[in-house]
């Protein structure tokens, strides 16, 4: 399964993606905008472990973003339990050298379309830390709507901040 964007593709994970994943993920400007479960520094072992968890998943819910033949980011859906089982969380990141090129809004649109056509879902949510307005803009460009702000609800790098909630349908 491959989705083709203007300057990138989304495809299934491959074992040999680990080196490029580690190279681009090991960036404090990326980890600083993500949940604490995203490690920093990001080691080759972290990359190998992550790919091992994702490369054979069925259905596919996590894709490498491949730019110029190299993994330069990740986009995926995180399925939850209980009453949230049909409303996955969207997560993504892109190598800093590719920021501002329009890749991520297009990738969000591709995975959103895929999810509603192929997965049993009713909505997709995305939570953005307050210090990340560029990610908010990505979601807005992709057609997601801000649902609200949860004030002073998260702590990242010892800074308490708001969390912005977006939904895509």
From TrEMBL:
Residues 8-166 form the N-acetyltransferase domain. It comes from the Bacteria. PANTHER family: ACETYLTRANSFERASE-RELATED, N-ACETYLTRANSFERASE DOMAIN-CONTAINING PROTEIN. This is GNAT family N-acetyltransferase. It comes from Mucilaginibacter gynuensis.
């Amino acid at each position: 399964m491959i989705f083709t964007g203007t300057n990138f593709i989304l495809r299934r994970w491959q074992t040999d993606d680990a080196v490029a994943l580690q190279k681009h993920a090991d960036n404090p400007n990326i980890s600083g905008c993500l949940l604490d479960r995203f490690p920093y520094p990001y080691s080759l072992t972290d990359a190998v472990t992550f790919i091992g968890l994702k490369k054979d998943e069925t259905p596919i819910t996590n894709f490498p973003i491949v730019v110029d033949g190299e993994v330069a980011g990740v986009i995926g859906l995180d399925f939850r339990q209980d009453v949230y089982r049909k409303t996955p969380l969207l997560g993504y990141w892109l190598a800093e050298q590719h920021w501002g090129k329009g890749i991520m809004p297009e990738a969000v649109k591709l995975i959103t379309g895929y999810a509603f056509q192929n997965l049993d879902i009713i909505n997709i949510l995305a939570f953005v830390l307050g210090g990340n307005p560029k990610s908010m803009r990505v979601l807005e460009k992709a057609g997601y709507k801000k649902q609200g702000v949860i004030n002073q609800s998260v702590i990242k790098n010892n800074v308490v901040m708001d969390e912005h909630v977006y939904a895509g349908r």
